[in-house]
Fold this protein.
Amino acid sequence: MELIILGSAAAIPVKERNLSSIALKYKDNIILFDCGEDLQRRFIEANLKFNKPLRILISHFHGDHIIGLPGLLFRFGLSERNAPLLIFGPRNLFLYLYVHRKILGLKAEYPINIIEIDHINNKLIEYEGLDSDLPVKETPIKDNIIFECKKYLLKYTLVEHSVATYGFSFIEKPRYGKFFPERAKELGIPESRIWKRLQHGEVINYNGREIDPLKECIIGPKRVGRKITYSGDTAPCDSLIDLGMDSDILIHEATFSKELDKNAKEKKHSTSIDAANIAKKMNAKQLILTHISSRYQEDAIKLLEDAKNIFPNTILAEDLLRIILK
Ligand SMILES: [Zn+2]
Ligand SMILES: [Zn+2]
């Protein structure tokens, strides 16, 4: 599991920083938080493959978070993509892409589903492909879950920005405990398909004997899943703390330094001090500051130092920085 910063700038790209986008590589999947301009080039630089199952989470409709999306979809159209693509975001996400379909001829000859989050009516509105502008289904949202598969969940919450904006959490489900093959052999269970069932914690009946792999110490206790939370653009808010409680990593915007606290409040953004306070309240293990304004091109380290005084395990996002999560 690996996080790769593809873009860490706010509003205006600078030489070293592209606009907002962060990739999470999880097994065969890529989960993308936002799609800043020129994302497809960063895909190449980060060595990300164009034909992997992909889930894209769009936090809001400000250009610095979404303009890279059509470019990426055009790129997919030029390659032989056949892996599934799900895109989640605010209402009108489908319309945004449909306009590209109608005017620029954007085609999607690969599986693509666009899922709008309607936080007002607490439901998901799903479109399939780009040819029909009629949704294929609407689903009520339970416990803020917008996507679930065998291995993980994606959750959202409304945060506080000048337009409807969502923060997101990736939540890995608890993993099976460590498997001890020697112990299985000791109990007279040779290597076979039964081992797989034991590894999955299943109580089996073997030669008339009931065997609970956990009680018999064939497997260890379940391992807690990992959790990553992304703030989107936001002023400090409680809903994000609730969503991201106990995250392994909080990726939080830090558009301003503490000296410009007034600007942060007016524009519904955060200072690096705000981000550090949120990380502390959230009981996060690590904080990554991102969405760095071009005004800090020379001295972004200042943002980091301020945050570290409150939350020591903080790092500053740099484009193409890779963080491996054990
Ligand atoms: Zn932004
Ligand atoms: Zn914004």
The chain has a mean pLDDT of 95. The radius of gyration is 22 Å. The chain has two domains: 2-175+223-324, 178-222. The pocket of zinc ion (ligand 2) is lined by residues 60, 62, 161, 233 (CB under 6 Å).
